[in-house]
Amino acid sequence: MIMDTQTIGIVKSLVPALQEHGSEITTRFYAKMFEAHPELLNIFNHSNQRDGLQQQALATSVYAAAANIDDLSAILPAVKHIANKHCSLGVKPEHYPIVGKYLTLAIQDVLGDAVTLERLSAWKKAYALISDAFIQLEQQIYQEEELRRGGWSGFRPFIVRSRQRVAEDIVALELEAADGQPIIEDYLAGQYVTVKIEQDGFEHLRQYSLCEAPGSQHTYRIAVKFEDTSRDMHQAGIVSSYIHEYVRNGDTLLVSVPAGVFTLDTTLTNPVALIAGGIGITPLMSMLRTVVEQHPDREVRLAYAVRDHHFHAFADDLKQLSEKAPTVSNTIFYENGTEEDVEQRRCAYIGRITAAWLEQHIPGNAEVYVCGPRPFMQAMISTLLRQGHPMEHIHYEVFGPALSFSVD
What are the coiled-coil residue ranges (predicted)? Predict the structure, then answer.
């Protein structure tokens, strides 16, 4: 679909209003859509809905797409990220007209008389163009994944072969395809899979990073942090709490193909810096194992910040990997650590990762990968930028809607 210059101009004239009222529009949109289509509710993470992150991310994507309607390639990285998320959740072409209908109604409700018939017509054309771009990219991803060796479409049954507690609030699950057939073994370090469970008559979908290096023909390993649902009316954490409380060896989980664009570039030889906070260690474990197993001469600097030794995930694995590869530097920070922790070498520092430590230990030519809670990532990335690290060398993964995340 090609839009004429006049229509493009009309769409762009809506951008200031979409930016100013974006959160109000998207909040209204979700309320309207979920009321009419409650079956779509559990595609979306309840905690992100509760915290407003889903609404903020959609608002950002709406006005970004409108602002770049004459050249959507300008926002291609964001489009690819969203398309990967959509494919992992099983979003289909038939979902787009539903979203378009209620998003348009929400824009009309909030902006009122500012949405003239001319603007409304232009917006509908713009949405058709944007949705077509997503549908085409997502169909391409679906087809490529299904045709890959070991690939599949939708959700495939996996058996839990082992269950290991790797921190007080984190369990790691080793999953094997129930049919015994090969799986996609050449996924990219840093990718995730979506797990689907059925509870109380509803389907719930959540994404979990793969924490092993690619290469296994039969098993995946994920790590799941427990989120308490008992005091949350939105049922945030319903999947993680279900896995912690009920899933045991021999149980079956439905799993999607690996997806995601936060991945290790294995074609480079410059140093790798892995900076993790809490559960953010999971995709970085896959990257670390990949470097150690496949590129043992490449220098790695790992900085991992956790609350204390009870929440130090993969402690033994990290120690073994750093001992196995002399090019790996493994530095642990305990926010609530003790002198005994330092003496026993459970951690190197008490407190948080500081700007001084980053400046001293992260090489200026490093490819930096950051993952963890949002405030942690904002602090780390902002500090690295101030210290002169180019943004194109800083890569990060947001657990939740990425477009609701910003860095000064």
Answer: none
Per-position pLDDT tens, the chain of length 408: 678 899 999 999 999 998 899 889 988 998 999 899 987 876 765 555 555 666 777 777 887 888 899 988 888 888 888 888 888 888 899 999 999 999 999 999 999 999 999 999 999 999 999 999 999 999 999 999 999 999 999 999 999 999 999 999 999 999 999 999 999 999 999 999 999 998 777 788 899 999 999 999 899 999 999 986 554 444 557 899 999 999 999 999 999 999 999 999 999 999 999 999 999 999 999 999 999 999 999 999 999 999 999 999 999 999 999 998 999 999 999 999 999 999 999 999 999 999 999 999 999 999 999 999 989 999 999 999 999 999 999 999 876 555 445 565
Kindly state the tokens that stand for 301. 């600097």
Which residue, 184, 161, 277, is CA-closest to 225?
A: 277
Roughly how many angstroms between the first and final C-alpha of the chain, as a whole number?
36
Q: Which residues of 316-355 are buried (b: 16+ CB within 10 A; e: fewer)?
A: ebbeebbeebebbebbbbbbebeeebeeeebbbbeeebee
In which residue are the tokens 């058709």 written? 128
**Is the separation of the CB atoms in 237 and 228 below 8 Å?**
yes
Token pair belonging to 313? 């995930």
Please identify which residue in the block is written with the tokens 């995730």: 192
State the pTM of this model: 0.87
Residues annotated as catalytic (active site), given as ranges: 96, 138
Q: Rounded CA gap, 183 and 186, in Å?
A: 9
Domains annotated on the chain, with CATH: 5-147 (1.10.490.10), 156-255 (2.40.30.10), 272-404 (3.40.50.80)
Angle between helices 117-147 and 76-89 (to 10 degrees): 60
Provide the 3-class DSSP secondary structure of residue 185.
Answer: coil
